[in-house]
# Entry
Amino acid sequence: MRVSLAISLLVTTLLFVELTEACELLEGRSTPELRISSRTLITQNSYNYQLLKLALQKTKQDFGPCEPKLIVTNLPRSRLLMKMNRGELIDTTPLNVSKERDESLLPVPFPVYRGMMGYRILLTRASPPPALSKAESVVDLTQFTFGVGENWLDKEVLTHNGLSTVEGLNVSTLYEMLKQKRFDVLLRGSHEVIADKQRVSHEGTRPEDKLVVAYPMPVNFYVRRGNITLATRLLAGLERAQQDGSIDNFFYKTPLVKQTLEYMQLMQRKFIYLCNPSLQRDTGINIDSQWLIPWPSKIKKCQNNYIQHASKG
# Structure
């Protein structure tokens, strides 16, 4: 049974049980709040804040009022998730889907960025290798080396598809390594390139302007393992917003998406598709309406094969 279907079936039974668990009424507040980690306190600049607000509005009649609250924190991700699982500091955060996270936390199986994380833009030096823009397939990419962060899921995807990788500590380090010719290409989610321009030193690098290396890398909201009520509420809200079309209206009007589509010229690029062997549960890849660009049949087939193999083993 799909994870999303399994959670959806809980809606009926949980509507009248322990609803206060979905959002917490903090001392000194008049409305329950849902705390989410953020790099900014400016709500209009936070895609995740606005998406959660939409989901909470769609479920207000069933679960009661609730407002998202941004929590700015510089904690390492491992410590942040440990705190969340203890019910401390935050209630939810968006993360790339992985088996480890599915086992330690509770996912809300709806693609937060509608595939943009997996539409990987190729960052190169100011003078990129001439052959790069001429690539037509993954075979053409084997002549290049790709920078990846420690514990990034990209490493398994790239090595599985025959591509060479070089590890760096974090995003800032990887940009410096790219400038120093430690590798040829740094892959970043199409929406991440915009944020990187404001967060890291990117001088001497630029986005390659013709290609996208695309593989399913969905981002889900995760909540603490026992908070089924909150997972149910968020999934119900996101699915209702999709069904009534309001999520499309939200998506295409947000600064993040508008800037990504305009600056990266995403729809005018050639997509080179790869399968993601680390994605071993149903993430809605067959539901075309959940993604900015529906996945081609060959990708759906290989991902479904991974899911079937994982379910048997």
In short: The first strand starts at residue 33 and ends at 38. The chain has two domains: 3-112+219-244, 116-214. The radius of gyration is 20 Å.
